[in-house]
């Protein structure tokens, strides 16, 4: 399924677009199984289970994987899937080049991620996020949440996040009028999102439901790096 002109228009206006069933439920199930096995094999480079100040967070036992495409053939193929690359090419009118891959496990009770802009982490433009639900994803499990239109606000300031809620320690300073939209997604649904849209998630408050997601970031083939303005990059927040 390729992106339509209407998808590209929605992406430009709202900062995100959801592609329902871009992957099939069976493919999502295979990915769940694959990544649970991969995680069970042991530590991987770049594992991150969240800030250490909340030792009871089960994310410490299921740390986020990063850049699996560098050592895992299946991840490399999924990240390079033509359905994903084709969709992004239409959205940004350029070829999509993989920047990073990640797998969030978000087990029951796991913390969310403070609302942020991806360019507060990765200073390349254009940059597009691809977030694929591997489990049913709703508010109870801490689904992906976006603030539509915020990609038009430019780079926002960063501040320390509340790490009792967020497994990362930095978040965007939210303008007062911002409205958050939880994205209810089924396994295989994908949201493509602009690098300046404010987004993140809340904790998984369910007793027994996981919220696994395959997440990749892509840059345009003609993308360029930029210097973050003071106070707008995650590295600009002082840490004790
Ligand atoms: O999955 C989440 O909880 C948030 C993901 C996110 O913020 C990102 O991929 O940039």
Please provide a brief summary of the model.
With 240 residues, this protein is an alpha+beta fold.
Structure description:
It is globular, with a radius of gyration of 17 Å. The protein contains four helices and twelve strands; from the N terminus they run H-E-H-E-H-H-E-E-E-E-E-E-E-E-E-E. Helices cover 18% and strands 26% of the residues. With 240 residues, it is an alpha+beta fold. Bound molecules: 2-oxoglutaric acid. The site of 2-oxoglutaric acid has 12 residues, from strand 5, strand 11 and strand 12.
Strand content: 25-35%
Q: Class, according to the CATH hierarchy? A: Mainly Beta
State the shape: globular
Given helix and strand content, the structural type is alpha+beta
Main beta sheet, described? 6 strands, antiparallel
CATH superfamily: q2cbj1_9rhob like domain
Gyration radius from CA atoms, angstroms: 17 Å
Bound molecules: 2-oxoglutaric acid
The tally of beta strands, per DSSP, is: 12
CATH-scheme architecture: Sandwich
**What string gives the helices and strands in order?**
HEHEHHEEEEEEEEEE
N-end to C-end Cα span: 47 Å
Low-confidence segments, given as residue ranges, are none
Task: Average the pLDDT over all residues and give the rounded result.
Answer: 97
CATH topology: Jelly Rolls
Helix content: 10-25%
Number of domains: 1
**Assembly context of the chains:** single chain
Number of helices: 4
Biggest β-sheet: strands ordered side by side in the sheet: 1-10-5-12-3-2
């Amino acid at each position: 399924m390729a992106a339509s002109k209407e998808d590209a228009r929605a992406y430009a206006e709202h900062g995100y677009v959801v592609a329902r069933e871009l992957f099939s439920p069976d493919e999502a199930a295979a990915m769940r199984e694959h990544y649970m096995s991969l995680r069970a094999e042991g530590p991987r480079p770049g594992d991150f289970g969240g800030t250490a100040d909340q030792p009871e967070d089960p994310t410490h036992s299921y740390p986020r994987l990063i850049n699996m495409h560098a050592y895992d053939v299946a991840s490399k193929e999924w990240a390079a899937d033509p359905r994903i690359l084709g969709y992004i090419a239409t959205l940004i009118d350029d070829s999509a080049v993989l920047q990073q891959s990640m797998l969030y496990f978000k087990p029951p009770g796991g913390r969310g991620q403070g609302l942020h802009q991806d360019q507060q982490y990765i200073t390349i433009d254009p940059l597009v996020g691809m977030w694929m639900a591997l489990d049913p994803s709703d508010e109870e499990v801490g689904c992906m949440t976006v603030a539509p239109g915020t990609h038009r606000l430019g780079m926002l300031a960063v501040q320390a996040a509340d790490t009792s809620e967020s497994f990362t320690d930095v978040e965007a300073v939210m303008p007062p009028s911002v409205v958050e939209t939880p994205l209810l997604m089924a396994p295989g649904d994908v949201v493509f999102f602009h690098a300046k849209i404010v987004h993140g998630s809340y904790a998984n408050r369910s007793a027994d439901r996981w919220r696994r997601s395959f997440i990749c970031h892509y840059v345009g083939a003609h993308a360029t790096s930029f210097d973050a303005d003071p106070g707008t990059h995650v590295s600009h927040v002082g840490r004790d």
